[in-house]
Design goal:
The complex is a heterodimer. Chain A is mostly helical. Helix content of chain A is 69%, strand content 0%. The radius of gyration of chain A is 21 Å and the shape is globular. Chain B is an all-alpha fold. In chain B, helix 2 packs antiparallel against helix 3 (167-179). Chain B starts with a helix and ends with a helix. Classes of the chains: A mainly alpha, B mainly alpha.
């Protein structure tokens, strides 16, 4: 499990501000986002080049996701959702490079991401709808007696959101990397090394998909929570 | 009790750090959260200030260009259709005008022809009448000459035969003979 260890890049004590391997790979994710979306869109061409096309595809992907799931008024939070998507998708994908680090396999990272979503969505819900936001927990469409039963269920499911939201992402990333590491350990044994190398290749392909799918899942859940905040009720 | 529990938890965390999951090493959390927030803020400002408005504007501009081009193409197509209709109309007008001119020309030629024919007919008629008159004249003259010649000849023959010709009876005989 050494691959998940956070350590200072230049030695010494680990303070809150120390540059670590994790900070380095977050920085690479920032640079990749910069290259794709800022440098790529620099020419503002009507007929786009390669990098501009990729940037526009990602833009349209997240933009339509926010619009379809959260509605037109959800588009006000599009930059925020796009930030989450770009960070998660690049942190996930870059972690598949050999010798790299996976920031999204850490609960500290995904937990803060999920808590940020949870808190901002709750604040948006109360600011936009006031006390009507509590209608999310008081299911008006259910029979009256049933509402008392549904209230605790709705409350629990609401407050469990940040946990499931963060553990889903970190768990997926950690599990994939750990499985590859385990197969890599078997590769040292000559008899089973061909099988091991093939298994690593297969897992790697699967992990590329998981990296992108988990970024998508994280983002679309953010949009779903945003929709609940903007349009509470069932 | 409480302090004991905290100590146990701390010991467990320390063990986790040594033995197992680095994810549960809480000593690294402040560092991780600090750099995560730095990364998120950096990406957020990069996107919201530069990248997203720029890409959005480019996409809107492209959409506008495409819409304008389609509208221009439709306008041009309508113009082409109008031009074709005008061409066809002009062609039809020209045909009608040509037909009219042909009919007019035909009518005027016919008129001229009719006039010429009438004139020619009249001339022919006049000439025929004149010729007939002359023929009648000639015929009458011929009959007269024949009568005269017959009288003279008859007198001469009678004289030659030694008779004495009575001019009046000879003439009467000849007239009777000519009538017969």
């Amino acid at each position: 499990m050494d691959q998940f260890a956070v350590h200072p890049l230049f030695g010494g004590e680990l303070h809150w501000y120390t540059l670590t391997n994790e900070a380095l790979w977050m920085g690479v994710a920032i640079l990749m986002t910069f290259a794709m979306l800022v440098m790529g869109s620099r020419s503002r061409a009507i007929v786009p080049g390669r990098m501009q096309s990729v940037g526009e595809v990602v833009y349209n992907f997240v933009h339509s996701m926010v619009e379809d799931v959260a509605g037109k008024d959800g588009l006000a939070y599009f930059p925020y959702v796009m930030t989450l998507f770009m960070f998660v998708v690049f942190a996930n994908s870059l972690s598949l490079l050999p010798m790299s680090f996976a920031p999204t396999s850490h609960f500290a990272v995904t937990g803060v991401l999920a808590l940020l979503v949870f808190l901002s969505v709750t604040v948006i819900g109360f600011v936009k709808n006031g006390s009507k936001f509590l209608g999310l927990f008081w299911v008006a469409s259910a029979p009256f007696a049933l509402r008392f039963v549904l209230l605790p269920i709705e409350l629990i499911s609401y407050f469990v959101r940040p946990v499931s939201h963060s553990v889903r992402l970190a768990g997926n990333m950690m599990a994939g990397h750990a499985v590859i590491e385990v197969f890599a350990g078997f590769a040292a044994v000559a008899v089973i090394s061909p099988f091991s190398v093939m298994a690593i290749s297969a897992m790697y392909g699967l992990e590329v998909m998981v990296a992108i799918v988990q970024a998508y899942v994280f983002t679309i859940l953010t949009c779903v929570y945003l929709k609940d905040a903007l349009h509470p009720g069932h | 009790m409480a302090t004991e529990a905290v100590q146990t938890a701390a010991a467990a965390a320390g063990e986790a750090h040594k033995a197992g999951m680095p994810q549960l090493d809480f000593a690294t959390f402040p560092n991780q959260i600090f750099w995560l927030l730095v990364a998120l803020v950096a990406i957020y400002f990069m996107l919201s200030r530069v990248a997203l408005p720029r890409i959005g504007a480019t996409l809107a501009e492209r959409k506008g260009t495409i819409t304008n081009d389609i509208a221009a193409a439709e306008e041009l197509k309508a113009k082409a259709v109008a031009a074709e209709a005008a061409y066809k109309q002009a062609l039809a007008d020209a045909r009608v005008a040509a037909g009219k001119i042909v009919a007019e020309t035909k009518a005027s030629i016919q008129k001229d022809l009719d006039a010429a024919l009438a004139k020619a007919d009249a001339a022919i008629f006049a000439k025929a009448a004149e010729s007939e008159a002359r023929i009648n004249d000639i015929r009458a003259h011929a009959v007269e000459s024949v009568t005269e010649v017959a009288k003279d000849t008859a007198k001469e023959i009678v004289a030659a035969l030694g008779g004495k010709a009575d001019a009046r009876s000879v003439t009467a005989a000849i007239n009777a003979r000519l009538k017969g």
